[in-house]
Amino acid sequence: MSWLVVAKRTILDPVRSRHLWVTLALVGLVLGLLTHLMTGRYASEVLFTSFAPLFVLIAIARSYQTISSRRQSGSLRVVLSYPHSRKDVVLGTALGRSILMAGVVSFGLIVTVGVQFINTGLPDSKLVLYTWGIAVLLAVSMTGLAVGISSSVRTTNRSVLLSFTAFLLFFGFWQQLPGVIRYVLNGLSKPAPPRPEWVDVFVALNPIQAYNTILSALVPAIDWSSNLYYETAWFGVLVLLGWLLLPLLIGLWRFERSDL
């Protein structure tokens, strides 16, 4: 179980270097302040939905250089000189970072619930439980994406470029891509309505949209009902699992076939 050794080291290194404590302090400060400012103005479900960008940003920022930086510095050769395969390195790194992100998300929600309790009382327990599970899944899937990117490129510059391009794509340009594609396919002219269903399916493949879809479908306080398969909780879960597994598999495939 060599990958467990790698996972343990991946967890302990940020603890020893105090990077984890800095991250927890930042999360506690930001979420505590946001909760204090938003409590009473917005419903709890709106409050928890707004946390997705922070968790995604931290997951990517803490994972994009996990393998590429060691590969660039040459320290990865030392790691692979032990009885660790390249597969062990990728899977162990992804597991370790995922556990760390689960801890960060848990701490953030504890702070949020604590501040909300002081201000207005305890939020709905189902809302907190569902949000915690969905937020952990989102953070873990983005960790898998970042580790997959990090293992597929040779330098840190490339991994940071690809990782934060993905972040901007998810939060800024994903919904515009189908319109651009339709515009090009229509001879550089505005396509006529109605909008085809594949556009809505494509939008639903955004991990942030998947997070919101799951939360809307599961939380009783949110008035949401849909018979469309791509607006159901199970579809959102599959989307997040896809963003976790596919980048890791692609990154592992490239990593095993490239020179250090």
TrEMBL record:
Keywords assigned by UniProt, alphabetized: Membrane, Transmembrane, Transmembrane helix
Record field: transmembrane: 20-40, 46-64, 94-118, 130-149, 161-185, 233-255
GO cellular component labels: plasma membrane
Domain of life from the UniProt record: Archaea
Pfam entry (one): ABC2_membrane_2
Protein name as catalogued: ABC transporter permease
